[in-house]
Specification:
22 helices; single chain; disordered N terminus; Putative ABC transporter, permease/ATP-binding protein; elongated; binds adenosine-5'-triphosphate; ABC transporter transmembrane region fold
């Protein structure tokens, strides 16, 4: 509302770095063309408190009206008309305008914060649904500033648009007053329109570039600190404090330089933005004095015209500043817009993935296995298929985004209610196979499916056709799996919270059998405060074996039908690992176990063994059978 010659940054706006994130690559010109479209798409999917912005807009209109009226009082005052009515009117309108400015400031600040909160929810919901393959390609830390910083521009851009609209209105009113006072002199000023347009476009471009660079700088810095702080123990262990200091300096420098650039743009843009006012004042002095000499304008004409022109210029400047602010917001919001344009997984029924990002941002509650689908029209197979049975891997090939072929033409049936062990050398594709079974990745070609593993009326098993896993809602599918990796992540919180992670938060071991079992597997009484033992971020206050035990407990806590164990007891002492495995084996009526291991004794006691070699199946069958056919297994189990 008050005129400044420059757009200001939203509260804590900042930006990473131009690194090879994959985001933002591509044909630059096409990108620039798509920028407005992407910008508007972001707003189409965002919940915006329009009523607040409407109030702010109305206040802006009234303010614009009053401003024009104030100028008519001030002209009379300047001309020495000092009647009480004029003085009181002038004071009342000026005070009224200040109150309106305060009200509009408060309304737009509130609207801006609500918009930013909604934008943050939207982007976070979207990041959570990005396929793992995409996230791994970009590095998760590269998304941090997309949800913390970039979104702060969202509300800012709307406030600027509202202010721009009310300024356009006020400009129209002020211009009419000016035109009515003297059409000819106003006509001379129209010669300056090209100058105005030049300032408009130039300022916008400069602001876009500055805000984008500033945001990119913040993103680079945030990314660096997120990754390196999370791994501080390696920094110290590798005696890398000095190296890190230098690298940190470099990361900080990126943002520093972006800040300098922004400062430079600010410094340049202030005189540019006031240039129009200066030129128009000179024009009024030159043309106006000529007109006074020719008696086409009264002797006080320049004075009165300048007062009215002041109003016009104030609004024009406001229009330029707000346009620049919108362009700046476009640059700052680009990363959030990029995230919103990436493909997402459809997690469950009621979500429509790419087509409706707002649904993704405010997703329906996750459907648990066996729960009736709330959407009667949802795909039949997805809603009713039982997530159980034999796991069928049919001619599956998987290539990582960098082209590395981890699995090639793999065909397998992992039998229901058994313990299958997958063995093979480093890089053979074992972990990749587990991730495909869990649908953390989708096959490049081929199919993962489920087949009824129970005997049919004729006593034959596995006779039914496989239901493609891709036809089952992802949330139902994944809820049927428990996954324990070799390097599990421990969240900051209690042992109990870590065991119940992902189960909705209000389950306790006293009331829930799977959780009780999870606590048993984790050997919870061995922790000082049992379930209430506090764990640090990343599990820095527990041993590797203890962390793996917690992860095993977490894997069974959701009563899964499949347990995927990826070297899940490699750090657990031999005796405890054997007991855990026999506990798990004793419950094969509840779950099918698929285990990756480098421990020959665990393979020998399995029901079924798969040997992977260079991404292909070397042998599969009962341990004795595989020992006859696979050279790798013979060496491994010897
Ligand atoms: N995210 C990734 N991007 C690119 N290549 C990857 C990725 N993850 C794994 N690979 C590659 O895929 C191949 C199979 O990896 P995988 O982790 O499945 O092997 P593995 O059999 O589990 O090995 P290990 O016994 O060492 O754990 C390896 O060559 C590995 O380098």
């Amino acid at each position: 509302m008050t005129t400044t010659a420059i757009a200001t940054l939203p509260g804590n706006a900042v930006p990473g770095g131009g690194n090879a994130t994959g985001i933002g690559n591509g044909n630059e010109r096409a990108k620039r063309r798509g920028l407005w479209r992407q910008f508007l798409t972001f707003y189409r999917t965002l919940r915006i408190p329009w009523w607040l912005y409407a109030i702010s807009f109305v206040i802006g209109i009234v303010y614009g009206d009053l401003t024009v009226r104030v100028s008519s009082y001030s002209v009379q005052l300047y001309n020495g008309k000092l009647g009480n009515g004029i003085i009181i009117g002038y004071v009342a309108l000026t005070v009224g305008n200040s109150i309106l400015a305060l009200a509009q400031g408060m309304t737009s600040a509130y609207a801006e914060q609500r918009t930013t909160r909604n934008a943050r929810n939207l982007v976070w919901g979207r990041i959570l649904r990005l396929p793992l393959r995409v996230i791994e390609q970009d590095n998760p830390s590269s998304y941090v500033s997309g949800v913390t910083t970039s979104v702060t521009w969202a509300g800012y851009a709307i406030t600027s648009t509202i202010t721009l609209a009310s300024s356009l209105y006020a400009f129209g009113k002020a211009f009419i007053v000016l035109f009515q006072y003297n059409a000819r002199l106003t006509g001379f000023l129209l010669l300056l329109v090209p100058v105005f347009i030049l300032l408009f476009v130039l300022g916008g471009r400069l602001f876009f570039a500055a805000a984008k660079r500033y945001y990119d700088g913040t993103k680079a810095t945030t990314e660096f600190f997120s990754e390196h702080l999370a791994n501080i123990r390696y920094v110290k262990a590798q005696n890398a404090v000095r190296d890190e200091t230098a690298q940190g300096d470099a990361a900080i420098d990126v943002k520093y330089r972006a800040g300098l650039f922004m400062g430079l743009i600010y410094a340049v843009i202030v005189p540019i933005n006031t240039l129009y006012g200066t030129i128009s004042s000179i024009a009024v002095a030159v043309f106006g004095s000529g007109m006074i000499r020719r008696r086409e304008l009264p002797h006080d004409g320049i004075n009165v015209f300048s007062t009215y022109l002041g109003n016009v210029n104030t609004q024009l400047q406001q229009i330029v500043v707000q346009y620049q602010a919108i362009k700046g917001a476009q640059g700052g919001l680009e990363h959030s817009g990029d995230i919103m344009s990436l493909p997402v997984e459809t997690i469950g029924t009621g979500e429509s993935g790419d087509e409706d990002a707002s649904a993704v941002g405010n997703a329906a509650p996750i459907v648990t296995p066996n729960a009736a689908t709330p959407d009667a029209s949802a795909d039949e197979t997805s809603a009713t298929a039982t997530v159980d049975g034999d796991l069928v891997v049919d001619d599956v090939t998987y290539a990582y985004p960098d082209g590395r072929l981890a699995l090639r033409d793999v065909s397998l049936v992992i039998p229901h209610g058994k313990r299958t062990v997958i063995v093979g050398g480093n890089g053979a594709g074992k972990s990749t196979l587990l991730k495909l079974l869990l649908r953390l990745y989708e096959p490049t070609s081929g199919l993962i499916g489920l087949r009824d593993g129970k005997a049919d009326a004729t006593g034959e098993t596995g006779s039914s056709a496989a239901v493609p896993a891709a036809d089952i809602a992802l949330d139902r599918y994944r809820a049927a799996f428990g996954y324990a990796p070799q390097h599990p992540y421990i969240f900051a919180g209690t042992v109990g919270q870590n065991l119940a992670y992902g189960l909705g938060g209000n389950k306790t071991t006293d009331a829930d059998e799977p959780l009780r079992q999870a606590a048993d597997l984790s050997r919870v009484p061995a922790f000082p405060d049992g379930l209430d033992t506090m764990l640090n971020e990343g599990g820095s206050n527990v041993s590797g074996g203890e962390a793996q035990r917690i992860a095993l407990g977490r894997a069974v806590a959701g009563a899964p039908r499949f347990l995927l164990l990826d070297e899940a007891t490699s750090a657990v002492d031999h005796e405890t690992a054997a007991r855990i495995l026999s506990d798990l084996d004793a419950r094969k009526d509840r779950w099918t176990i698929v285990q990756v291991t480098h421990d020959p004794s665990q393979a020998r006691s399995a029901d079924y063994v798969v040997v992977l070699n260079g991404g292909t199946v070397e042998a599969a069958g009962a341990p004795d059978e595989v020992a006859r056919t696979s050279p790798y297994y013979r060496r491994f189990a010897a």
